[in-house]
């Protein structure tokens, strides 16, 4: 159950090349609370005071440091020997995620900077390298408690509170090197079209202007190892679109091989770039032939209504916090979700590791991709949020498992959206910018309540029992969507000036049931036994499924997270309830 070019632990499985080197492992590390490092030329000689295990942040036990107090500036350094196979090639330094503002030096020379804690970024460091010697890579990461920066569930106070947890500072995803030619593919945006039985590849090339000869791009599509179609196109400008017609290739084993949770069929594609008849770049990717649409108040997958059984997942681990401890841990979480009868995951307040999305693609788990929130509305928040969100949408676009974009949640960062037209216009702008990049997926602009322009009406409600849910929602659709009543006793479904347009309705947070404990909290009363838990879980789940105008639900949540103990699994991934009993209720 992998794609043709799968490489274990490869950090970017949607765009695979052979020449790469991980830089995870031991780095030198130093705190810089007084911000004296640059003046003291730490970029040239760090004199590290700690050793840290990358990609785990200093706040985690997995890092080898495990200090949870906030430090606004941290430094990293590693000596790297570039292998002989990279001779004559460009060397690209990749960071999958650094929180929050990163500056990178190579051999003391500034190579670049990036702002945003969740998007991947890279620099061509070739000009700064010294051949045949170890090269010094130094990174300074600046973080803050500023609530105008996208921070998700990271606390901005000294201690954890409510549903906010220990912050994550600095490198928290894989660091790696890639060896490429001057002429190469920078990116390929893949758009399937099942109605026309074709797929388009929007290709961005690098180095076209310095090519010594004509440039030809070949795209070879296969399905389960069987050739489907190969298309070639001469490239005379940096950006071109190649469309591959699959209609007349539909007599083989790939006939109508759509991607879905029941059959997560993936096509492999190999891109080969020729300059003057010589191969200069090869990239392996994949795609799923699938379509997400909305019609008559339903979400459709491949033109057929899909009822979404979603689980909320915050992606925290005890020893490593936001960083998955291994690829095996990523796969295990997905397998737990599927074993409990869920077909979707709402990745909450976190942009997850690309390998998680890869395995959702492979195993057929639908994904709601949700941005980490800001918590104040300000011009700075508008700018930082917008820039990073657009990076993320572009980076995640090719994953067939992602079927919904969720840029805002529960009015976080837009606290006065009910009345404030500036905050309303901000969410409208993000909606339309997202649609400009990706018109093919639904966008939820304020998950939970007080929606503005939104393709799905999602509601959050932590009522404790099914009869309470039915009394609130059973016959009250018109009153809720027309704002004659609140949807959960205290919030309206839409912001002022916005009205229901027939959108699908999903209960996108409910449950949150916790067992009795004095070490944390859940929603409502804590339960004392497995029987009490299952009665309440079944009561709520069946009540939601019995309401005909609701087309899906999202249970809170997959695992415990620090002080929040309402997971179906503990933070150590120990099931609290037999998985088959949860599955039986979900599929009943």
Automatic annotation (TrEMBL):
UniProt cross-references to SUPFAM superfamilies, sorted A to Z: (Trans)glycosidases, beta-Galactosidase/glucuronidase domain, Galactose-binding domain-like
UniProt domain Glycosyl hydrolases family 2 sugar binding: residue ranges: 21-140
Taxonomy, superkingdom: Bacteria
UniProt keywords, alphabetically: Glycosidase, Hydrolase, Lyase
Transmembrane segments: none
All residue ranges annotated as the Glycoside hydrolase family 2 immunoglobulin-like beta-sandwich domain in the record: 184-290
Domain Glycoside hydrolase family 2 catalytic intervals: 293-583
One GO MF term: lyase activity
Pfam families listed in its UniProt record: Glyco_hydro_2 (PF00703), Glyco_hydro_2_C (PF02836), Glyco_hydro_2_N (PF02837)
Membership in a protein family: Belongs to the glycosyl hydrolase 2 family.
The protein's name in its UniProt record: Glycoside hydrolase family 2
Organism per entry: Paenibacillus tritici
């Amino acid at each position: 159950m992998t794609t043709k070019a799968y490489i274990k632990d490869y950090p970017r499985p949607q765009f695979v090349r052979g020449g790469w080197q991980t830089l995870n492992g031991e780095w030198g590390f130093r705190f810089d609370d007084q911000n004296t490092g640059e003046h003291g030329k730490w970029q040239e000689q760090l004199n590290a005071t700690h050793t840290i295990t990358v990609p785990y942040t200093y706040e985690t036990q997995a890092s080898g440091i495990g200090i949870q107090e906030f430090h606004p500036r941290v430094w990293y350094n590693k000596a790297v020997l570039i292998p002989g196979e990279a001779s004559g090639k460009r060397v690209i330094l990749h960071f999958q995620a650094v929180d929050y503002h990163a500056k990178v030096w190579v051999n003391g020379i500034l190579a670049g900077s990036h702002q945003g804690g969740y998007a991947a970024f890279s620099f061509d460091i070739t000009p700064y390298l010294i051949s045949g010697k170890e090269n010094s890579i130094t990174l300074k990461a600046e973080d803050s408690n500023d609530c105008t920066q996208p921070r998700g569930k990271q606390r901005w106070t000294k201690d954890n509170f409510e549903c906010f947890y220990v912050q994550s500072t600095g490198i928290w995803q894989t660091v790696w090197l890639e060896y490429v030619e001057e002429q190469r593919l920078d990116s390929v945006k893949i758009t399937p079209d099942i109605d026309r039985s074709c797929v388009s590849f929007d290709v961005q090339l690098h180095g076209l202007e310095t090519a010594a000869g004509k440039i030809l791009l070949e795209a070879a599509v296969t399905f389960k190892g069987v050739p489907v179609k190969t298309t070639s196109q001469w490239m005379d400008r940096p950006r071109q679109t190649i469309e591959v017609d699959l209609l007349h290739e539909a007599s083989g084993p790939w006939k109508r091989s759509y991607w879905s949770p029941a059959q997560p069929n993936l096509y492999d594609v190999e891109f080969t770039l020729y300059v003057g008849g010589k191969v200069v770049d090869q990239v392996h990717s994949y795609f799923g032939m699938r379509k997400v649409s909305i019609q008559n108040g339903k979400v459709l997958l491949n033109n057929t209504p899909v009822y979404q059984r979603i689980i909320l997942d915050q992606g925290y681990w005890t020893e490593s916090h936001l960083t998955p401890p291994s690829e095996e841990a990523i796969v295990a979480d997905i397998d737990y979700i599927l074993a409990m009868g869920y077909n979707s995951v709402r990745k909450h307040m976190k942009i997850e590791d690309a390998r998680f999305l890869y395995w959702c693609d492979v195993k057929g788990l639908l994904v709601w991709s949700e941005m980490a929130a800001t918590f104040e509305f300000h011009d700075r928040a508008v700018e930082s949020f917008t820039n990073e969100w657009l990076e993320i949408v572009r980076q995640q676009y090719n994953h067939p498992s992602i079927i919904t974009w969720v840029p805002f949640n529960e009015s976080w960062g837009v606290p006065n959206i009910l009345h404030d037209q500036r905050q309303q216009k901000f969410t409208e702008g993000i909606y339309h910018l997202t649609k400009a990049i990706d018109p093919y997926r639904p966008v939820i602009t304020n998950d939970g309540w007080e929606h503005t322009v939104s393709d799905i009406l999602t509601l959050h409600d932590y009522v404790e029992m099914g009869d309470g849910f039915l009394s609130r929602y059973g016959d009250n659709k018109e009153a809720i969507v027309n704002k004659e009543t609140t949807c959960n006793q205290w919030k309206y479904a839409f912001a002022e000036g916005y009205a229901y347009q027939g959108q699908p309705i999903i209960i996108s947070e409910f449950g949150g049931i916790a067992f009795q404990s004095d070490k944390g909290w859940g929603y409502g009363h804590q339960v004392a036994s497995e029987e009490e838990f299952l009665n309440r879980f079944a009561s709520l789940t069946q009540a939601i499924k019995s309401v005909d105008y609701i087309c899906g639900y999202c249970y809170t949540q997959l695992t415990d997270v620090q002080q929040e103990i309402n997971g179906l699994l503990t933070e150590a991934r120990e099931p609290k309830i037999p998985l088959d009993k949860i599955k039986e209720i979900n599929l009943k």
